[in-house]
Amino acid sequence: MTEALYSEDAYLKSCQAQILRVEADHVVVDRTVFYPLGGGQPGDTGWLSTGHGIRLEVTDTRRVDRGEIGHFLADPSALSPGDQVHLELDWDRRYAHMRMHTCLHLLGSLLQFPVTGGNISAAKSRLDFDMAEPVNKEELTRQLNALLQEDHQVGTRWITDQELDAQPELIRTMSVKPPRGAGRVRLLEIPGVDLQPCGGTHIRHTAEIGPVRVSKVEKKGRQNRRVNVVFEGDAR
What we know:
The chain is α+β, with helices and mostly antiparallel strands. It folds into two domains: 13-89, Elongation Factor Tu (Ef-tu), domain 3, CATH 2.40.30; 94-231, Threonyl-trna Synthetase, Chain A, domain 2 (Threonyl-tRNA Synthetase, Chain A, domain 2, 2-Layer Sandwich), CATH 3.30.980.10. It has three helices and 15 strands. It has helices at residues 91-110, 137-149, 161-165; strands at 3-4, 14-22, 26-29, 31-32, 46-50, 55-63, 69-73, 84-89, 115-119, 124-129, 155-160, 184-190, 194-197, 212-219, 225-231. Strand 5 (46-50) and strand 6 (55-63) form a beta hairpin. Helix 1 packs across helix 2. It starts with a strand and ends in a 5-residue tail after the last strand.
């Protein structure tokens, strides 16, 4: 198992780790600050370096076998199991994902419909909703920015699988289900605004997100609307 340091502190930018396994295109380490692809959030990128002058670009991060997290490299052949390495995030990209991911939770709190899909990127993100009603993007932009400016605290807590089973209303995503099997599930909590299972990385206060804009609302079927969000000032 790879210890997921990002799950307890998303603001960690780097860490020391030991290589457990080397494959043709990735390495597995014992602990990491790199978030693996999942829940609509991309896998982190950054750098892996050793004390012997080797510095390699991490081009993607994904879950692999047995709860391990793989860090993908163009050529990991110079590395060996047991090597001590330094992992460093592309922090600007990750922080944009944190801001966007938290913003989508706020968007979902305003549109109380089941979520059928979503995607996060550093520039533009979206949520798809199972709803037939049209959406006024200017009014939604105003409401979303009002929530950001109220500077709500963002935190996480854990509940057991059994507690989640007793509260099925917490699960709003239709396409992605919370991971089971570990005995507990992490909740993203914005008191008075949002509470739902989420394993992604988030900022600590909503004001960190900065001004945003609902750039487009698309009809994707009889009862499906796609709502796109960008950081204010972005032309997309």
